[in-house]
Amino acid sequence: MKLLKSLILLSPLLLSTQAADCSTPNKEVYEKAASEMMWSVRGWLCSNAWWQSITAGPQGAWCNSKGGIVPAYEGQFTIHGMESQKQCWDTTEQIIRQCMKYDISGGTGPGQTKSYNGGTWTWGNVYAGGWFWAAPGEQCQNHIKRSENEVEGGDDGTGNLTRPNFTLADGTVRQADNVVSLDLSGDEPVVVQYERF
Predict the structure, then answer these.
(1) Which end of the chain has fewer CB atoms < 10 Å from its terminal CB, N or C?
(2) Bridge-based pairing state of the strands 72-80 and 126-134
(3) Cβ count near 57 (within 10 Å)
(4) How far apart are CA 79 and CA 96, in angstroms?
(5) What's the pLDDT at 166?
(6) Rg for the chain (alpha carbons), in Å?
(7) How far is CA 6 from CA 12, 126, 183, 185, in A?
(8) pLDDT of res. 134
(9) Strand 190-196 vs strand 114-115: parallel, antiparallel, or unpaired?
(10) Residue 166 contacts by C-beta under 8 Å, 6 or more apart in sequence?
(11) For 2-13, what is each residue's pLDDT tens digit?
(12) pLDDT for residue 121 is more than 90
């Protein structure tokens, strides 16, 4: 019984130390704008809907506003079964920090890099998954608002977020119950579309 109590007390610690499972690298070219977009989506999601089975992403393409030819990105997070707001913050942060980055040691030659565009985190009935992808030909609607030194912070072609499948740790395939489209262009995210299924 004492061992069981110890394991129960340690389970939140174990949850927070699990690593995210990153997507195959080089699916998309990493850009700071894409990572900033995902920090913004995470901020809304874990503040406003952490207890839901939900997919959230920006309305319109997100990009760097430095001028010139601007690569535009879209993306989304899906969460399911979160047991606390902290768990939402922790799991989505792990995905961004571990799976949305350049890996300078992972290239095929000296000085080469691999870029990761997302990944998943699963434990029992808990799921978090997030990806960004290039949106070629789309007008930039949301510009990076953070400074260059600051770290923190999908569309189906019709302007609607997709409702992706996700797989729990036991292999069960599910879909989110809700899909949210966010306007991230202002100081605070605003819900512009909310669909329940």
Answers:
(1) N
(2) antiparallel
(3) 28
(4) 14
(5) 85
(6) 17
(7) 11, 21, 44, 46
(8) 83
(9) unpaired
(10) 78, 80, 120, 127, 129, 173, 174, 175, 176
(11) 433 433 333 343
(12) yes
Among residues 127, 105, 113, the alpha carbon closest in space to that of 31 is found at 113
Token digits of residue 14:
């174990």
- The pair of structure tokens assigned to 105 is 């040691």
19: buried, middle or exposed (CB in 10 Å: 19+, 13-18, 0-12)? exposed
Over residues 155-166, the pLDDT tens digits come to 444 445 567 788
**Strands 61-63 and 140-143, sheet pairing:** parallel
- More confident site: 25 or 140: 140
Q: Across-strand partners of 62?
A: 73, 142
| Residue 193: predicted pLDDT | 83
* pLDDT at residue 108 greater than cutoff 50: yes
Question: Counting Cβ atoms within 10 Å, is residue 9 exposed (0-12), middle (13-18) or buried (19+)?
Answer: exposed
CA distances from 141 to 65, 86, 113, 138, 191 (A): 10, 30, 29, 9, 15
